[in-house]
Design brief:
The protein has 5 helices and 10 strands, in the order H-H-H-H-H-E-E-E-E-E-E-E-E-E-E. By secondary structure, it is an alpha+beta fold. The chain has a single domain, classed as Jelly Rolls, CATH 2.60.120.10. Strand 6 and strand 7 form a beta hairpin.
Length: about 180
């Protein structure tokens, strides 16, 4: 992840200060991430990916490497050290017209993301197993297995598992 963040920052011709300002985090945190001294949380990766003009899936795939055909066993996964949720980049072409991401969230876990993480994206959430509470700004959506929600305009959001069992859902992402 460290190399992927640094490479994209350099690619975009951003200084550490400029990336920190765009992401709303300290320069010290950017330095720790790029040096591999800090395991970034989902919220931090969301801020960094948005500031770098990438989806979270693109950033994870750049860290893991991706091919046109990606077998399940080779699909890049990342686990948030804070919430324990795991995201798997299902799509073989990260950064393409459509990205599919499978997320498994442990019981009673949650992950929050700032609105600017989604400023250039459209999302749909499809719950595969369990119950997901999705807090979109002031609105709370309770989604059960089989339910699908198209997200509205970018807003601060929280993905929350209110139950004693894991929730598994698919996120479909396209660029605006």
């Amino acid at each position: 992840m460290a190399a992927a963040v640094r490479a994209r920052r350099v690619e975009r011709d951003l200084t550490v200060r400029a990336l920190a300002d765009r992401a709303g985090v300290s320069r010290a945190m950017i330095g720790k991430v790029e040096a591999g001294e800090a395991q970034p949380t989902a919220a931090l990766l969301g801020k960094l990916s948005g500031a770098l003009g990438l989806t979270l899936s693109e950033l994870v795939a750049r860290a893991e490497g991706a091919d046109r055909l990606v077998r399940r066993v080779d699909q890049p996964t990342w686990t948030d050290p804070t919430s324990g949720y795991t995201r798997r980049a299902v799509s073989p072409r990260v950064g393409g017209a459509l990205e599919l991401v499978e997320v498994t969230m442990p019981p009673h876990a949650q992950a929050a993301f700032a609105a600017d993480t989604y400023a250039f994206l459209r999302h749909q959430l499809w719950v595969l197993d369990g119950t997901l509470e999705f807090v979109e700004g002031p609105t709370v959506h309770r989604l059960e297995a089989g339910d699908c929600l198209e997200l509205g305009p970018p807003a601060d959001c929280v993905y929350r598992n209110p139950d004693d069992e894991p929730v598994r859902y698919l996120v479909a992402v396209t660029r605006r």
